[in-house]
Amino acid sequence: MSSFVRAYSTVQPGLRPGITKGFIGAIGNTPLLRLKSLSEETGSDILAKAEFMNPGGSVKDRAALFVVKDAEEKGLIKTGGTVVEGTAGNTGIGLAHVCRAKGYKCVIYMPNTQSQEKIDLLRMLGAEVHPVPAVAFDNPENYNHQARRHAESLNNAVWTNQFDNTANRRAHIETTGPEIWAQTEGRLDGFTCATGTGGTFAGTARYLKSQDKNIKAYIADPPGSVLHSYIQSGGKSFDRAGGSITEGIGQGRITDNMAPDVEIVDGSFCVPDEESITMLYRLLDEEGIYVGASSALNVVVATKLAKELGPGKRVATILADGAYRYQSRLFSRSWLESKKLDGAIPEHLQKYIVLP
């Protein structure tokens, strides 16, 4: 055996020997990346959990697995059954993968404002997809309510209800939070991420604060969401001005996943789309990381929180998914111009706008 082969035939540090049990066994245990340029800029460690490295490509693989496991444990679904969900995309993609791995049918209702890449991928994974008009949650035609009614019309079917099914939050209490704690060796000063269902933020923040109550937990919010207003007003305001290009984040209410942990939120930042798109291009150029707008928003807030806490701190956030699911928009000059965002991208980064 050559010296080269011997050097690479041993298990690398941090990896355990053994064979992963299929798609489901590969969910979680994602790397925690130190973002070099932003860490140097802030004088603190900006740490990003690479959730785009989950097998289904997003943080929502974790929630998808846990809500299906929860349905199985409660006897709500049996072999050959159907899983129905209302989702802006990533939870649906995670569910489609999990359902294929477990032998269930998958039906997805989603707002018709979502990227075509997501819709196409869901169908490629064998899911039945229903894009429906995007309307508020209090409208009976909201995609979540349509998903619930569809599940109720079938035998051996479950609506997994990701927004208010706290198995979603439990996924992050049991996996994401402990992983970040172990990866930082218990040295962490802040955690932030955006919320859609609230599961990722609430579950991760709850676990981390259970280990160290001094860790600051901040919500990252896009325009058009009520959460920044709600936190800043001490729960008195639900203002939701504007809108955002980000998909799957922001909220018009306090979900059941979020409700138990509102009390542990230390603050929030609302990030304009201009800052998110600039950071998205910076991460590509400076770090070689290709992520979507919600991930970029999370990193913007991580840097803001680091600056607020002062130098020498450690702040962790979530890289929720890759840019592959949005590239026809985020790297299209005509689309960026239609959103008046092309001017937010610095001249030296304009070279990445490669689509017409």
UniProtKB/TrEMBL annotation:
Protein's UniProt keywords contain Nucleus: no
Record's keyword annotation contains Transferase: yes
Keywords, ordered alphabetically: Amino-acid biosynthesis, Mitochondrion, Pyridoxal phosphate, Transferase, Transit peptide
Pfam families per record: PALP
Functional pathway: Amino-acid biosynthesis; L-cysteine biosynthesis; L-cysteine from L-serine: step 2/2
Places the protein is found: Mitochondrion
A GO biological process held by the record: cysteine biosynthetic process from serine
Record SUPFAM superfamilies: Tryptophan synthase beta subunit-like PLP-dependent enzymes
GO cellular component labels: mitochondrion
The protein's role, per its UniProt record: Catalyzes the conversion of O-succinyl-L-serine into cysteine, the last step in the cysteine biosynthesis pathway. Can also use O-acetyl-L-serine.
Protein name per the record: Cysteine synthase 1
Cofactor(s) needed for function: pyridoxal 5'-phosphate
Cited Gene3D superfamilies: 3.40.50.1100
MF annotations from Gene Ontology: cysteine synthase activity
Catalytic activity: O-acetyl-L-serine + hydrogen sulfide = L-cysteine + acetate; O-succinyl-L-serine + hydrogen sulfide = L-cysteine + succinate
Domain of life: Eukaryota
Organism: Circinella minor
